[in-house]
Amino acid sequence: MSVAHYYETMEYGPAPEADGEARAWLKRHESTFGHFIGGAFAAPRDGKHLTTIEPATGKALAKIAQGSAADVEAAVSAARTAQPHWARLGGHGRARHLYALARMLQRHARLFAVLEAIDNGKPIRETRDLDVPLAARHFLYHAGWAQLQEREFADQVPIGVIGQIIPWNFPLLMLAWKIAPALAAGNTVVLKPAEFTSMTALLFSELAAEAGLPPGVLNVVTGDGATGALLVENPGVDKIAFTGSTEVGRLIRQTTAGSGKSLTLELGGKSPFIVFDDADLDGAVEGVVDAIWFNQGQVCCAGSRLLLQEGIAEDFRRRLIRRMETLRVGPPLDKAIDLGAIVAPVQLERIKALVETGVREGAEKYQAPGAIPSEGCFYPPTLLWNVHPSSTVAIEEIFGPVLVAMTFRTPDEAVMLANNTRYGLAASVWSETIGLALDIAPKLLAGVVWVNATNLFDASVGFGGYRESGFGREGGREGMYEYLKPKVWSGRKVRAKASPPVSSADTAGFGVPSIDRTAKLFVGGKQVRPDGNYSRAVLSPKGKHLGEVGDGNRKDIRNAVAAARSAEAWAKATAHNRAQILYYLAENLSARRDEFVRSIGAMTGVSSAKARAEVDAGIERLFSYGAWADKFEGSIHAPPLRGVALAMHEPVGVVGVACPDEAPLLAFISLVAPLIAMGNRVVAVPSEQHPLAATDFYQVLETSDVPAGVVNIVTGDREALVKVLAEHDDVDALWVFGSQEASVAAERLSVGNLKRTLVDHGLALDWHDRAASEGPILLRHSVQVKNIWIPYGD
Ligand code: NAI
Questions:
Q1: In what order do the strands lie in the sheet with 535-539?
Q2: Cβ of residue 55 lying under 6 Å from some atom of ligand 1
Q3: Which atom number of ligand 1 is nearest to the Cα of residue 168?
Q4: pTM for this one?
Q5: Which residue from 340, 364, 564, 769 could staple onto 681, CB 3.0 to 4.6 Å apart?
Q6: What Gene3D superfamilies does this protein's entry cite (predicted)?
């Protein structure tokens, strides 16, 4: 075709990006790759390879090694050997390496962009303008945290060897999101890229070694899910960080349960894109293009559910269809195409099948009319109109260029529809009325909310989900904490199984409480009889009967969870109000100090001085959380994009808490107070052995204006009650202290709704040590960060 032809018709001509350098790199390796272990390529021990294809052509691209147990072991051991040296380099030393990695990415930006487009099928326009620059920004930003680490994270230490498993939708960018914070914090890494898209990870590791990254700091083991599973199981790995499907996330949660490995999961989504009738409609149409047709819709936070206010729905549909007519699907290396190829035939088939299901279930299908290449994995931009909220395509993550649309009448209905999903990754709100947009944002159950924008990312702004979209954050200060652990928590001893020793002081002089005391449970602000009408005896260390407490069962936990759920107003109470109530609790505990001292002494056998010290520490701790309630706030980020991001601390929700037997009052307060200070509601299972400290606390709660349902207490068999809490889908998080068995049960059984867990694995905490058991160390687990991006400035 001549230039004159294009001049006359104004059609797009081909604008291919040269791929010579990327092909030459492949050729240099004879298109066959080993793993990258200890600073060099290593052939797979059993010689097995997988063939990866080029999605745009369907042709074979390269052979990658299929990692075996021996390969994974070699990589983990290289990482283990390197870790102490890497940590000892210090923040500045690591900052220089991370800076060198950012510069390396910038130097080779075009090579990475082209290789990524070839390997994944995504348009060069995106890899060039987004994936590669953002990856470089991640290293630069985290070079900064490494530099400031000794000051800003002085009380933290690296976790050790991190196993990272990433998906195929943003191969290089996910690599950067994973390894930059991990390395900055002083950990070493074994990374398993997705089997469809391992090329840029291999190129990165090779060039990182050339840029001077010490051997063993970053190791890459390629292979499919079986290799990923081997990495998860490897005992030398201290933490797993995973991004991918919710299904595999669940499997990993189960495998790591009880292993002591920490875990973060970034999983799927079905994010709403809400357009109110006062929105800038053309702006919102462009937003939709970015929300669902960016990266062929293969984006975990894709705005895949379009919620339109009824009055503008038809108008919006017309504008959207007109815009769809202009979208171009074609070869990824063409600089003027909008959508490239779907990553693999299996994904293409999945998308086709889901769209057919949508149509069968009543949706009207519209597809952009432009031609799509006849070879390779391509799928046109698709709109499913009039989709019922309960239809499969409104519920399942399609992970393709398919938008489902439905309408709403009122803002409340919009929120209801938006939250009508098991996921909670992101949401986008469009309205020219700032009051409306900022009224909706806090009501959305999502880790990221974009106002009049969508799919904005930056290293300084944490990213991650609520609910079944996983737990943990990537980016920002909170992302650094995912790769660090408190110094005071490492190196603790496993607690002795036996009951605490009987002090020689025994109970003499304490005045044992009268024998007919029978404490009930505390549910919904009232003392209630246990459902089973059974009670448990509470004995002194010498076997003296001190009283009875209710023996709670499954039904009692269910009632307590329901009471906690309905105390939702607590989450919205002002921090000032919560602070006042915590001070009031302290005041009322102080008024009953002697009674608690006697009871603790009688139950645990500690001296009166020790019992007094425990009660006094409890009073002080309540004061501390009164102080923190309005001071543990979020922050504001200024990413290099138009706008600011408000990193808001939101409560996690309903949290189950199992308390240890040591320091029964102080530990109970130390766990419950940070949670309620941040607006959570609690179902607490107090010390199994010494529950009277908590049951005596009922009166303190009753006299301190704590609203009904905010703190619920169910006494009984700790492990049995923890299991019920773990399996309960309306419990958002579970903290278990005091038992290895209960810790394991909590992690394993919480897989249903992927609740966040904080467990002590039987390692005894010193509850009197403030650094170990008070303040940000627990407050950080009492909140989840919601990042709200709002337009700001120009
Ligand atoms: P996947 O979750 O199977 O793969 C992600 C990564 O996990 C890959 O590196 C894979 O090799 C590894 N993996 C697979 N099984 C594993 C196991 N048992 N243990 C450890 N690692 C394992 O995702 P897949 O199959 O590629 O895509 C399926 C669906 O998942 C997509 O259609 C999409 O709905 C969703 N997905 C979501 C992503 C997200 O970012 N939220 C990313 C990729 C997929």
A1: 518-519, 545-550, 535-539
A2: no
A3: 43
A4: 0.93
A5: 564
A6: Aldehyde Dehydrogenase, Chain A, domain 1 (3.40.605.10), Aldehyde Dehydrogenase, Chain A, domain 2 (3.40.309.10)
Cα(617) to centroid of ligand 1, in Å?
A: 47
- Angstrom distance (rounded) from CA 793 to CA 488: 43
Q: How far is the CA of 296 from the centre of ligand 1 (A)?
A: 17
Render pLDDT for 104-122 as a digit per residue (tens, 0 to 9): 999 999 999 999 999 999 9
Number of Cβ within 10 Å of residue 99's Cβ equals 17
pLDDT at 9 over 90: no
| Sign of the alpha-carbon dihedral angle for 389, 391, 396, 399 | negative
Q: Which residues are catalytic?
A: 266
Q: Whose CA is nearest to atom 13 of ligand 1?
A: 225
Q: Which atom of ligand 1 is nearest to the CA of 193?
A: 9
Query: Of all atoms in ligand 1, which is nearest to the CA of residue 248?
Result: 2
Chain position carrying tokens 């797993």: 240
Would the ipTM clear 0.85, i.e. be above it? yes
Q: Which two tokens stand for residue 754?
A: 């992927």
Distance 571 CA to ligand 1 centre (A): 34
Closest C-alpha to ligand 1, atom 43 = 244
DSSP string for 606-667:
--HHHHHHHHHHHHHHHHHHHHHHTTS--EEE--SSSSEEEEEEEE--EEEEE--SSSHHHH
Cβ–Cβ under 8 Å, residues 56 and 332: yes
Neighbours of 529 (CB within 10 A): 13
What integer pLDDT is reported at residue 763 of this predicted model?
A: 82
Any atom of ligand 1 within 6 Å of the Cβ of 192: yes
Radius of gyration of the chain (CA): 28
C-beta of 233 in contact with ligand 1 (< 6 A): no
Edge-to-edge order in the sheet of strand 521-523: 526-528, 521-523, 711-713, 681-685, 654-658, 733-736, 756-759
* Helices 90-107 and 132-152: angle between axes, nearest 10 degrees: 170
